[in-house]
Predict the 3D structure of the following.
Amino acid sequence: MSMILEMVSYPFMVRAIVGGALVSLCASLLGVSLVLKRYSMIGDGLSHVSFGALSIAVAAGWSPLWVSIPVVILAAFFLLRITESGRVKSDAAIAVISASALALGITVTSLTTGMTTDVSSYMFGSILAMSKTDVTFSCVLSALVLGMFFFCYNKVFAVTFDESFAKATGVDVGRYNVLIAVLTAVTIVLGMRMMGAMLISSLIIFPPLTAMRVFKSFRGVVLCSGVLSVVCFLLGICVSYGCSTPAGASVVLVDLAVFLLFCGIQRLMARTAGNNKKQ
């Protein structure tokens, strides 16, 4: 308790906790749809696009945040169009864009500014560097994501599981796919500040996969994923503060531990159900 009180006594820690928790929540909720639609690695691809954009922004003296957001949104649109056309599989499209953007970012960085503090923080994460602007964006983003799930739950459910059926019932599938892509892109850009390009995809993948070990309904997975993401983030920050370990890596390791725990619970539940059937 004394450690927690000490943490919240620092304004930069409060910004990190609030902003990070909100971004984690958004990533986990969007991650449910992305994982079920087999787009789980889109976070990794878009984070590399964001790294390429911010490298150019830093070299040109522009604001990394304001440059990265529109570039990553355009990349998300581009990925959707490629995969919808059927010419390239989604995993191949993500890999091509990811590798190209990362190579561009590294090349621009090596030829201009070098590995500055700004570039390094986006590459490997620096949650304590979150500014008031980052927290404000996080609050707006979380409101949009929560609003989408609250007001459009049935349509998001239909688009996630069966796009053909959703189209037949009059749902504008393209609009909701674009909405999910845009919100994911903004989440990736904000999340890179705390997790870095190397680890941001973990915020999208781990909570939904963990929740799916125990819960089978879409609503159960969404609720559990949201709760787990916030709890794991807070535990990761406490571990990082207490053990002086990198914040992003600590959050991922906590996510991994909880995932393994839920895998054990899933096996126990399956074994119990099997024994009940035998009796």
In short: The chain is about 85% helix and 0% strand.
